[in-house]
Design brief:
Helix content: 10-25%
Organism: Polymorphum gilvum (strain LMG 25793 / CGMCC 1.9160 / SL003B-26A1)
Strand order of the largest sheet: 3-4-5-6-7-8-9-10
GO molecular function: endopeptidase inhibitor activity
Family: Belongs to the rhizobiaceae omp19 lipoprotein family.
Number of helices: 3
Subcellular location: Cell outer membrane
Shape: flat
Largest sheet: 8 strands, antiparallel, barrel
CATH topology of one domain: Lipocalin
Distance between the termini: 72 Å
Main location: membrane
CATH class of one domain: Mainly Beta
Radius of gyration: 30 Å
Structural class: alpha+beta
Number of strands: 10
Length: 181
């Protein structure tokens, strides 16, 4: 009996010691905050104008449609995208899942499902800074052409399969756009 009582007392003491070791029932201690690091001020000034790249065409804009709403930056209005000779047949199931979307400076994700939605099937994007790309809400197939649409059913982009799991085309403002796995 004495031995059982001794074992019970030892177990209780070890349990209490273990709780103290794990910090149970004691105040948490946090590391001291790091001191602020001094930085140098940022200098301002005028940038030199960019030289056009070899092979680029300069001159008057093709239409009066502004690019991203910035005055003085205009591009040609996007019409129907001509079908490339190497465009391949695709099915709705080929489009499902996540895609890496790229257009201009944007590199974000595009997700497509078979849930019916205004103007086609449900789609959404993540991480797009361009408001038009961030507003993609639907997609649809028109023959070999994939059409990405906004919430109001407006066309955001048109793309054709350009080999493997890659699609290339243009946005409604005429910029190049592509998505791939």
């Amino acid at each position: 009996m004495k031995r059982v009582a001794t074992i019970a007392v030892v177990c209780c003491l070890l349990g209490v010691a273990g709780c103290q070791r794990l910090g149970i029932g004691s105040q948490r201690q946090y590391a001291a905050p790091l001191p602020a690091t001094p930085t140098t001020p940022v200098a301002g000034g005028q940038l030199q104008p960019l030289e056009p790249l070899p092979g680029t065409v300069t001159g008057e804009p093709l239409s009066g449609q502004p690019l991203d709403g910035a005055p003085g930056t205009e591009v040609a209005a996007a019409g129907p995208l001509p079908e490339p000779t190497d465009a391949r047949e695709i099915g709705r199931n080929d489009m499902l899942g996540g895609w890496k979307l790229a257009s201009g400076a944007d590199n974000c994700m595009l997700f497509m499902t078979l849930t019916t939605w205004t103007g086609g099937y449900r789609a959404n994007t993540r991480g797009c800074s361009d408001p038009a790309l961030a507003g993609i809400s639907a997609w649809d197939l028109n023959g070999k052409l994939v059409v990405l649409k906004g919430a109001a059913g407006d066309q955001v982009a048109q793309l054709y399969a350009s080999g493997g799991d890659r699609f290339s085309g243009q946005t409604a403002t005429g910029r190049a756009i592509s998505f791939s796995r």
